[in-house]
Amino acid sequence: MSRLPPGRGERIDRERPVAFSFDGKRVAAFEGDTIGSALHASGRRVLSRSFKYHRPRGLLCCAGQCPNCLVEVDGWPGVRACTEPVREGMRVAHMNASPSLRFDLMRGTDLFGSRLTPPGFYYKTLIRPRRLWPLYEKILRHAAGLGRLPRRQAEREWRTEYRRRHADVLVLGGGVAGMAAALRAAELGADVVLVDDGPELGGDLLAGEGAESARELAARVRAAGVEVLAPAAALGFFDGIVAVWCQSTLHQIRAGHHVAATGSIEQPLMFEGNDLPGVMLCSGAQRLASLYGVRPGKAALVATVADRGLEAALALHEAGVEVVGIADTRSSGADEELSARIAQERIPLLRGSAVVRAFGRRQVKGAVVAELDEAGRPIADSERGINCDLVAVSGGTVPATSLLLQAGAKARWNEAGGAYLPEGVPPGVHAAGAVAGHESRDRAEISGAAAGAEAALELELGDERDRARLQLERESLSPESEPATQLVPAAAGSANGRHEKCFACLCEDVTTDDISFSIDEGFDSLELLKRYTTVTMGPCQGRMCQLPSIRQMAADTGAAVGEVGLTTARPPWSTVPMGALAGRPFEPAKRSAVHGRHQELGGNVLWAGDWRRPYDYGDPEGETMAVHEGAGLIDVSTLGKLIVRGPQAGAFLNHLYPNRFDNLKPGRIRYGVLGDDAGRITDDGTVCRLDEQSFYVTTTSSGADAVESWFAWWLAEWEMETHLTDVSQGLAAFNLAGPRSREILSALSDLDCSNDSFAYLDGKRAHVAGVPCLLLRIGFVGELGYELHCPGALAEHLWDAILDAGEAHAIRPFGLEPQRVLRLQKLHILVGQDTDAESNPLEAAMPWIVKFDKDEDFIGRWALESVNERGPENKLVGFTISDGVVPTEGAAVVADGKPVGRVTSSRFSPRLKRTIGMAWVPAGLAEDGATITLADGGRRLGAEVQIAPFYDPDQERLRG
Amino acid sequence: MSFEFLAPDAAQPAAGEVPSLRSPIEWAHRRKGARLRERAGWRVVAGYGSTPKEVAACQASVAVADVSFLGKLELQGEPGVVSSIVAQLAGGAGLEPGRATFHDEVWWCPISADRALVLTPPELTRRLREELEAAAAGDSFASVHEVTTTFGSNAVVGPLARETFARATALDLRPDRFTEAAFAPVSVARTPGMLLREGGDRYLHLFGAGYAHYTWGVLIDAAEHLGGRAVGVEALSAARPGEVQADA
Amino acid sequence: MSFLLTCPNCGEREVTDFAYGGEVVVRPSAKPSERELNSYNYFRRNAAGVQREWWYHRSGCRSWFLADRDTTSNEVHWVGLPGR
Description:
The structure holds three protein chains of three kinds. By secondary structure, chain A is α+β, with helices and mostly antiparallel strands. In chain A, strands 8, 9, 10, 11, 12, 13 and 26 form a seven-stranded mixed beta sheet that branches. A six-stranded mixed beta sheet of chain A has the order 38-39-40-37-31-41, sandwiched between helices. A six-stranded antiparallel barrel of chain A has the order 42-45-44-43-46-47. In chain A, α6 (176-187) runs parallel beside α8 (211-223), α21 crosses α26 (816-825) and α24 (741-748) packs across α25 (795-806). Chain B is α+β, with helices and mostly antiparallel strands. Chain B has helices spanning 26-31, 51-60, 79-89, 125-136, 161-166, 212-225, 233-239, and strands at residues 21-22, 35-39, 42-47, 63-66, 71-77, 101-103, 106-112, 115-120, 142-146, 151-157, 183-188, 191-199, 202-208, 229-230. In chain B, α3 (79-89) crosses α4. Chain C is mostly beta strands. In chain C, the strands form two sheets. Chain C has a four-stranded antiparallel beta sheet, with no helix packed on it. The radius of gyration of chain C is 14 Å and the shape is globular. The N and C termini of chain C lie far apart (29 Å). The interface between A and B is large, with 62 and 66 residues.
């Protein structure tokens, strides 16, 4: 059993066993364990295989920082075993190894292939012969990546959501500094959110002796009303919003102030075999021992560059782990009290020494330690082997500055601190704790409290005493009192020749030799090196490899570490599922007030712009013929509807449209086409004058918002005494069309519907079936018809009443598709279908609508005048094809083998029994009877141009 | 008849029947088994089956109710004209940006200096419209339009109402920021909307009526995930006796 | 991009609540030459710095207003309604 005796700080509950499976085998654990701690306790050292060489990897950081323990949990890939709590019955499986974790065929890339796979090997070796690339790609795609998503879509779906949170202060990091900041700010009255990536607040305190004080502080933080999000990953700063992924919610937090207490990250050391399972960060080994009561190893060798390792050695020793030795790269300068305690406990301390190699097949069996010369190089004949199954390493720490840098701070090399520390932190952002260079517990706590106080005071909370207290805290944080972190040399390889790889980047399997090799090839700036070798681009986002690669580059180029710089910190700082970013799908859809009726009538409901509309009710041809022969009813509630009202309403419309509206008589309707100052058509619709000051303007369904905003814009610019009220979504509208529509309307209304008193292009107001309506006699579909506009609350009643009254006249509801055929027969254009961003009314078969003789200026006038002077180049015309073939919309019109135009609409007309369509053709071909050739896929089709409408060209039916 | 085609209450008896007024998504409520009852010509959702559960949602989690029957009137004019009409009809109250005024069961909501939205119980809509039209008929040009059916409206009430909205809008709804009677035109669930905090944890959400089904789906989904549910007006009034705005 | 913009009517909102109307250009008052017309229709200063531009509060009060925005930092220095 590799559990230690119960310790005071442990998180596990030994009374409550939990069992789960790993690769099908049962694993016993305790409540409070993580997958990683339980697996380690069960004796398993190999948790994954590495990205490129498929080398065995085991626990390293035990804090969710490194890529070594990524596993699949219940089918979800990419879960970090070291932070994921165990749950009864969970199914855990390894990733990236086949056929098994123990025996992985792809390990061959490590044993035999590494000479063939240098940095950039894709570009070097897979370019010849060119034609084999598809094969290479297939193999690479198979080999690349970690883990596999569930195959079936349904198994991939899980509920995620966004949550917006506003806060006064957002604290990033729940270590001692972060907790102190949150506590102080909350005590001063701020609304505080605290985010931490660990399963428990406390940060580094938890790994050492401070677990109890961490818990006490965490309880105070919660009691102060701080909202704690943990375990949660802060993904990045996005223009004032911090995205935080917690369980299945993406919290988008907008805070007035931010405290970055992101701590520091312990760094691995560079030596041969430094990735073997059993090589662990000191803090990782400590976490295992103190939080989970797991014996990290039977015999531990500690390798360090700073006092941190000495503290860890003592902690492990006290927890009951045999420490066989400490290799400290420093020959002097260690803390005296620590040294004395180490001597007292009879732990061998090898000063001025480093581990140069760890060996073992699947896990550490021992390590080679060598003394270092004055330049930090290992002395060859000083090497000796030490048997151990754990090498606990501490390569110093780097401040976790990424989030601060994203917030706008700059990283500057701090010689005294021996680290890149944030500078120029922007207003409203505060740095506290180790990330700001305050490593020790006391200093971290003071700096945290000070940051919390600063934030609160800037929010005008607190009083003079709080200000004075803050001043004292600031003074006690003077930089001199902070001990400097020791620097370490780059890779300490054995002086007796290379035996094993030495990894700078564990995520992407980049070795220190790869880095040196790339620098030799000329990639001698850090940003280039990053892109070429992919170092820092893996799941750890540079947490484990930024400093090692900088150190290697400094050693190889002779530059100082401070001159090498850092690569740009980009979000996401932590790994996050793509589904988390998607959130819950918000797909705004508009539906008419009679949508339920469409469904009940068997409507084939599809997207039409942002509306859900019936395309047909199962029989588009029959619906088309019903409109011709009896009556049809179509829901056109989707139309944009604007009331333009005021003393200058007529003048306003005159300015907007190329034709006239000020002379439109009340109760009459006129078609209008809207354009911009480049003369291009943007929308069309009808305008009905309601009274002297009021117009009712309809727009296309998809153009409703744009037209309202266009009108509002010119109103803002011209400041005319005109009011605009958008009633698009408030009024339902139905087009009752067909030769029998007059009878149906008469049956439902007292209105005199005779042609004399309700003529074509008349607008009337009347009750229909008791429903107050605005009736527009217009003819988009080409038959006698009435568009009825009424309050949405009465829409179902009116729809039902019309269908009931129409039953005797063979009325049928019809959908968009029949309407498209019907309007095409009349050559009525659909803006956006038959026109595009280049179309103007002069060319789009509507020259009559542009009134150049209008006195006043109107939008588009000047551009249209130039088109008029030049003469149109192309024209929109109708065409017919007699043999029933329907060309694809978008098919080319060709002349002399070259495309000269295109088909915009085409349908087979059941009424006319032939194919009809509209097409853009060169102006020279735009005359009745001209023959045009259409190229549609592989076929050529002959078509005949027709200028007049195909159906009822003399408008006898429409006006009858 | 001038602008009667905008006014649902202009419906008249025909063939022995007065057309009843319906929510834009009454069809969806019917399918969920909603019990409908009459109020001022409207068919409103009384409940979905279990009134005690619905009341509990109002009090302990979050409840969403379709109150599209609320009357909505839009007043436009020069800022001075609008404020004098509002002062005349709202008991002397002025309009302050971001803040609605409650007077005689009517909410007066400023959209801009030259546009105000008036929310009325359905019984009062016609009277208010006529009063507004009379007040707007003065020398300076002002216009009044009924927009009752242009906006759907949901009442969202309960201790988790704010959390429900946090899943759909970026607006800061913390109680000290979005105080009682606060009014904000704002995007909710990626569609234009308006939020009014009627009081306590009672919010009114207005949105384009075309989006009623979509908005209902988004809010109910968020609410149910938080333990809440759809409720009818009976639960709304049972949960807070004495209130008059959104219940029967 | 998720900066906040202050609508003169409604106050601070996410920029996604607004529609961008582009930099303010002056429409010619009399018939322009072809070159003037093209430059009015198609050419913009596209300043790297503060420019006056149109914004439409699409998801709010549905009013157009003017803003002086620094295009390099998205900092908005002034907003106001036209003509007031």
